[in-house]
Specification:
single chain; 355 residues; 9 strands; 12% strand
Length: 355
């Protein structure tokens, strides 16, 4: 079942008719909807205040704190969708993987997965493992009303890379060595992660998320031939597992210009585009039948307002003939971004695209 075939009874009526979900379904919209990756937190002083002294993973497990952080950018910026505040490694932590998010470093795994025996660390994820997610989304959907909530998860390839490398990497030598040198182990690792990721997304959808996004942050590190053989099957398994819910499915990666068509093939209804490829060219690469999301360079927000508006117009002009367009950055909000620049950007896009 695609997002376009979803029966309305599966969605609350108010979010279902929102500009964001209409754009995901490639329907006419009153204005181009806007939301930002990493809008929940990072640049907001109110976020830093409520997170003070609370480790990242702990903050993801406190439903009332998650609710407050998720709502902050909706209140401040007037964005067209909220994105659930969490981290891609939360489901791994929930099943018992010994990891932590170290400030200034990122996720660090105590026992990297390098052998078949190491796969035993990856058990199935149950809803009880992440009951705090269900609770938080229940709180959020009541507060958000007509504003849709986007759930998300890390894609199997990116999660596998963290698990094999033991933390962030610029070269992915251990992950690629497994992918090339032991393809059966690699396939089994990604298959297990696909099941965990799908279970995590199902929890969010069943709790009330109106759409989901799969972040394959590191997928741009592989060539198209390797993506098709060694990455796409697991992502496709995730998208297929949640297809029956009828909620829009978004797929995003960084540096994935050469992979856009393949990322669409994996089963997404919406393909996210980073800032390296113009939206009209991205549409050509993805092909018909998909909405697109993107793609202002996040660093543009450090320029004067006039320059931000000029670059925004370039994005909107390149996207004017798309079947569906959701305005976003080409990657996440940078921590030192002026929040007022984001608020001005939302208002500018809404004003410029009002139908």
């Amino acid at each position: 079942m695609s997002a376009n075939d979803a029966p309305r009874a599966q969605q609350p009526s108010a979010p279902y008719e929102s500009a964001f979900l209409k754009a995901c379904r490639r329907e006419p919209v009153p204005h181009t909807p806007v939301w930002f990756m990493r809008q929940a937190g990072r640049s907001l002083p109110e976020y830093r205040k409520v997170r003070e002294g609370i480790p990242m993973l702990e903050s993801c497990m406190r439903p009332e704190l998650v609710t407050e952080i998720t709502l902050q950018p909706v209140r401040r910026h007037g964005v067209d969708a909220a994105i659930y505040f969490s981290d891609i490694v939360v489901p791994l932590k929930a099943i018992g993987i010994d990891l932590d998010i170290k400030p200034g470093v990122g996720p660090v795994v105590e026992r990297p997965i390098r052998t078949r025996e190491d796969l035993a660390q990856l058990r199935d994820l149950t809803p009880e493992d992440v009951s705090y997610v269900t609770e938080a989304i229940g709180l959020l959907t009541r507060e958000l009303g007509a504003t849709p909530l986007i759930g998300f998860a890390g894609a199997p390839f990116t999660l596998a890379s963290y698990l094999v490398e033991g933390g962030p990497s610029r070269t992915y030598e251990n992950a690629k060595a497994m992918m090339y040198g032991d393809p059966e182990l690699w396939a089994d690792l990604l298959d297990r992660l696909a099941d965990i990721t799908a279970a995590f997304l199902k929890v969010q959808i069943e709790a009330g998320a109106s759409a989901v996004q799969l972040f394959d942050s590191w997928a741009g590190a592989v060539a198209p031939v390797d993506y098709r053989r060694s990455v796409l099957p697991a992502s496709a398994k995730v998208f297929e597992a949640v297809a029956g819910y009828g909620v829009p499915r978004i797929h995003f990666g960084v540096g994935t210009g050469e992979l856009l068509g393949l990322m669409g093939e994996a089963g997404a209804d919406v393909v996210g585009v980073d800032w390296r490829v113009p939206m009209d060219e991205a549409a050509r690469r993805v092909g018909p039948g998909k909405a697109l999301q993107g793609n202002l360079d996040p660093t543009v927000l450090f320029a004067p307002t006039q320059a931000v508006e000029a670059k925004t117009r370039e994005v909107l002009d390149a996207a004017k003939d798309l079947e569906g367009h959701i305005f976003n950055l080409g990657h996440g909000v940078m921590p030192s971004t002026d929040p007022d620049a984001l608020t001005r950007l939302v208002d500018h896009v809404h004003t410029q695209t009002a139908r």
